[in-house]
């Protein structure tokens, strides 16, 4: 029989009172042997609480009752071989999705732009179906064995369904007609006895029919739906005792009843909550108001550290605001305090899942460079094919540098072209391309799982995951999905497979190490019936307490209420009861919140405000501010001074024109970039930049002039422009194929071709003839105690009949800017090239900047004045400067603002701080 429930007040003595109830009711029957008694608790943690409480009461050895959770007890039962096989949640999800994607009107109703947008809808519909099953299944079972009767469904449930919809206003009924019909059809189709809820209920009812032991059911909430049906059936053969929390006003502190009257259960024979005597709360609770998220986390972490130093051994961190709670956890772990996380974070946020996501990104984007580099840099990516190479960091870096220098945005062929000098890396990319190509066809889930396992094995990730806790859970998830979806034959595209895997990773919680239980992070409802020495609740502002519920589709509270589903009010009420129990059962509770968010006032939780208001009205002290002092750290002050490093051992062996220009602009910049080698890496750009345009023109013009020099008789003046256009078209055709954004530069150059040919012909008429282009040269400079090698690439060298030699440098600038550049005499590029190219027999008599941008429909060049003198001055300057570096001269940071504005080592010299 079902004994009247025992109601115990929410307090720190709950388990003590619970133990007294069990002992008082059963000790006289069997002495100290309680093994004939079956006790069901909400979670495994509660079993230890109950045993400890019974031990404290009995003060002697005893045989405890058999304590289980309901799930564990059901798992101990013999399987019913006649029962239908359970269909896994993943198989249900994809089977339903396969049906939904066939109906175009669904995408229109739910604004789905593509099929995969319906996958979250399918998941929501299954969740809603399970809710309806939980509430209505007891009404449609036939007999007591849990079998379903389709006729009873239509006879009993359909009228209730339509009655629920009839509670809505007529416009809402019209609006919801299609959606309501969809939910009804999905639910009735899911109610086939193979879903986990139906099979669990059938197993519960078979257990209730057997009723092997007297039962005590301990729960913080009253049983509803299938649980109530189970207990009612069980009580027909065995005694059933229900122990739950007492929410009558007589069992609660008066201050809570009057502050939050909605938590109180109606009483007929007891005085109302408003007539209760209000006393000071038994337990101590206070607040911490912070000015920022970081301050809230710091004060919260310091509070927990203070509690640990005081000797508290059981501390709860309630993660009402998960972001703040995670930050508190990070600060505690920095202080060597482990936090046992019972909230669990999504498996999708782990590094192991990120490695899988990186591969999916590579396939989806067809090898965008950033996605490919993310995959290669994954700590789990260890392909056996690269085992013979140097350390992974080296070959990944070599791939990255090659792609950045070539500005390869993506594409398998473009990447292989950029890596052609590294055949082993080309082999790796070819392997990735082969595996990615296998993702183009539609497959069933078993085939997708097998392909994913094959890919991960070839990458070495499957093996690497075995030594990582998060990786092990991803492996288990994939293996379990293989078992769950083995019988689903529908075909899915790669995009559908990817969204499905993302949902599985998103819905699976990663569980970390829980060996150290001194500090436990858990959600508010996870603290039910648990007791701690102290509790810190993070995120007690209006936006987090109460937490905002997620609406399920279009279901209004009216429909949910009529269908017997949990309503918004019931969720809010239960959450407030959980909060009340937390305050009632724990001796010290600190509530933290942020006074401001994003520059605006952030109000405290209305529940706490109501409590404070009631305390004020009853002349009791309001919640006090928790006093916490952050630990002081004394740092010695070091004045920041202008850096003036001296590094004679790092004197460079080679020097380029750009390097010496860097030295002239700022010696410290030269020290950092050329001597220490700290130059920033190139960045990828999805659009060609001016430097790319310049490189293309250099290659085109070299090909043009080489052709003219080799076969001048084939290209007289009238044909020279056609030749340059042909070379340009062929070159840009390849470039545009790889990067369509280069088309604008192609058009820009085509407009300039005639002007260039005209300038080139005029330069030839002045007596100059093209000799060679794009020449790499080296030359040694010596002084008394050292030497340096000058290096550089000269765009073009011309000569005339008098034996004079000129160097030319192409610039994609206007002629006015080049004239100003030479006038200021700050740029040493042309004199440097003269030094580099001259010999004792062939001095370089002139140098020219050639502007490849038209000015008034023409191109022009500008020559350097006093060129021979400038070369001599430059040689003396280089000799003096480099020898001074070798003798230990200081290299101060003394760049002007125009130099510092774009300097890549500005963060090293800290200009502005000295």
From TrEMBL:
Boundaries of every PD-(D/E)XK endonuclease-like domain copy: 654-910
Endpoints of the signal sequence: none
Origin: domain of life: Bacteria
Alphabetical list of InterPro entries matching this protein: P-loop_NTPase (IPR027417), PDDEXK-like_dom_sf (IPR011604), PDDEXK_AddAB-type (IPR038726)
Designated name of the protein: PD-(D/E)XK nuclease family protein
């Amino acid at each position: 029989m079902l004994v009247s429930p025992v109601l115990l007040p929410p307090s720190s003595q709950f388990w003590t009172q619970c133990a007294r109830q069990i002992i008082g009711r059963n000790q006289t029957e069997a002495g100290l042997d309680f093994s004939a008694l079956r006790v069901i608790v909400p979670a495994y943690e509660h079993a230890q609480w109950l045993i400890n409480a019974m031990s404290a009461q009995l003060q002697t050895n005893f045989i405890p009752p058999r304590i289980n959770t309901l799930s564990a007890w059901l798992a101990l039962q013999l399987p019913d071989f006649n029962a239908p096989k359970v269909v896994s949640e993943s198989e249900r999800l994809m089977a339903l999705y396969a049906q939904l994607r066939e109906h175009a009107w669904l995408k229109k109703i739910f604004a789905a732009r593509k099929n995969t947008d319906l996958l979250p809808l399918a998941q929501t519909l299954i969740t809603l179906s399970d809710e309806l099953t939980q509430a209505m299944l007891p009404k449609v079972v036939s007999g007591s064995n849990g079998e379903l009767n389709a006729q009873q469904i239509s006879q009993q449930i359909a009228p209730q369904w339509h009655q629920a919809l009839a509670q809505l206003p007529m416009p809402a009924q019209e609006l919801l007609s299609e959606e309501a019909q969809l939910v009804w059809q999905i639910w009735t189709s899911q109610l086939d006895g193979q879903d986990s809820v139906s099979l669990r209920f059938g197993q519960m009812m078979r257990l209730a029919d057997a009723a092997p032991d007297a039962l005590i059911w301990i729960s913080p909430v009253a049983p509803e739906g299938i649980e109530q049906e189970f207990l009612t059936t069980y009580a027909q053969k065995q005694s059933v005792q229900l122990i739950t929390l007492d929410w009558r006003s007589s069992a609660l502190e008066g201050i809570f009843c009057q502050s939050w009257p909605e938590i109180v259960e109606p009483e007929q024979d007891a005085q109302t909550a408003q007539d209760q005597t209000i006393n000071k709360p038994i337990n101590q609770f206070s607040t911490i108001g912070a000015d920022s998220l970081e301050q809230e986390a710091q004060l919260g972490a310091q509070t927990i550290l203070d509690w640990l130093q005081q000797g508290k051994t059981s501390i709860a961190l309630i993660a009402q605001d998960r972001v703040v709670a995670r930050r508190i956890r990070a600060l505690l772990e920095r202080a060597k305090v482990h936090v046992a996380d019972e909230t669990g974070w999504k498996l999708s946020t782990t590094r192991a899942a990120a490695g899988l996501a990186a591969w999916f990104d590579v396939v989806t984007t067809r090898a965008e460079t950033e996605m490919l580099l993310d995959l290669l840099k994954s700590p789990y990516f260890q392909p056996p094919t690269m085992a013979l190479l140097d350390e992974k960091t080296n070959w990944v870096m070599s791939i990255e540098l090659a792609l950045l220098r070539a500005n390869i945005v993506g594409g398998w062929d473009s990447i292989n072209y950029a890596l052609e000098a590294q055949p082993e890396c080309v082999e790796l990319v070819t392997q990735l391309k082969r595996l990615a190509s296998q993702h183009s066809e539609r497959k069933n889930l078993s085939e997708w799982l097998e392909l994913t396992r094959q890919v991960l094995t070839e990458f070495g990730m499957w093996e690497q995951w075995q030594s990582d806790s998060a990786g092990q859970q991803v492996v288990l998830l994939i293996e379990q999905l293989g078992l769950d979806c083995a019988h689903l034959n529908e075909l899915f595209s790669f995009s559908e497979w990817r969204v499905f895997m993302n949902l599985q990773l998103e819905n699976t919680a990663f569980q970390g190490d829980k060996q150290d239980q001194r500090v436990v992070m858990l959600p508010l409802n996870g603290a039910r019936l648990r007791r701690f020495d102290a509790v810190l609740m993070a995120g007690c502002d209006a936006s987090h307490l109460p937490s905002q519920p997620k609406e399920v589709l279009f279901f209004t509270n009216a429909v949910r209420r009529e269908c017997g589903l949990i309503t918004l009010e019931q969720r809010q009420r239960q959450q407030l009861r959980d909060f009340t129990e937390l305050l009632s059962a724990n001796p010290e509770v600190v509530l933290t919140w942020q006074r401001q968010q994003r520059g605006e006032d952030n109000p405290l939780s209305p529940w706490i405000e109501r409590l404070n208001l009631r305390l004020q009205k009853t002349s009791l002290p309001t919640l006090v501010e928790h006093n916490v002092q952050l630990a002081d750290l004394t740092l010695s002050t070091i004045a920041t001074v202008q850096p003036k490093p001296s590094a004679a051992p790092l004197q460079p062996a080679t020097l380029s024109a750009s390097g010496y220009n860097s030295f002239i602009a700022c010696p410290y910049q030269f020290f950092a970039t050329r001597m220490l080698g700290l130059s920033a890496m190139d960045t990828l750009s999805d659009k060609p930049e001016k430097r790319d345009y310049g490189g293309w023109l250099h290659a085109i013009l070299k090909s043009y002039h080489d052709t003219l020099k080799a076969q001048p008789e084939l290209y007289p003046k009238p044909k020279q422009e056609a030749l340059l256009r042909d070379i340009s078209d062929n070159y840009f055709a390849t470039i545009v194929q790889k990067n369509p954004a280069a088309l604008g530069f192609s058009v820009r150059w085509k407009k300039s071709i005639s002007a260039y040919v005209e300038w080139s012909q005029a330069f030839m008429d002045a007596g100059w003839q093209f000799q060679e282009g794009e020449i790499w040269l080296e030359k040694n400079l010596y002084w008394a105690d050292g030497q340096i090698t000058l290096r550089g690439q000269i765009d073009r060298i011309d000569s005339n009949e008098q034996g004079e030699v000129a160097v030319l440098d192409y610039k994609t600038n206007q002629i006015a800017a080049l004239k100003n550049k030479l006038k200021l005499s700050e740029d040493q590029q042309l004199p440097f090239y003269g030094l580099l190219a001259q010999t004792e027999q062939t001095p370089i008599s002139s140098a020219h900047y050639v502007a490849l941008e038209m000015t008034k429909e023409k191109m022009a060049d500008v020559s350097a004045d006093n060129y021979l003198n400038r070369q001599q001055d430059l040689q003396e300057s280089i000799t003096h400067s480099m020898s001074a570096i070798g003798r230990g001269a200081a290299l101060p940071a003394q760049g002007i603002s125009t130099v510092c504005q774009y300097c890549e080592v500005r963060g090293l010299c800290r200009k502005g701080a000295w």
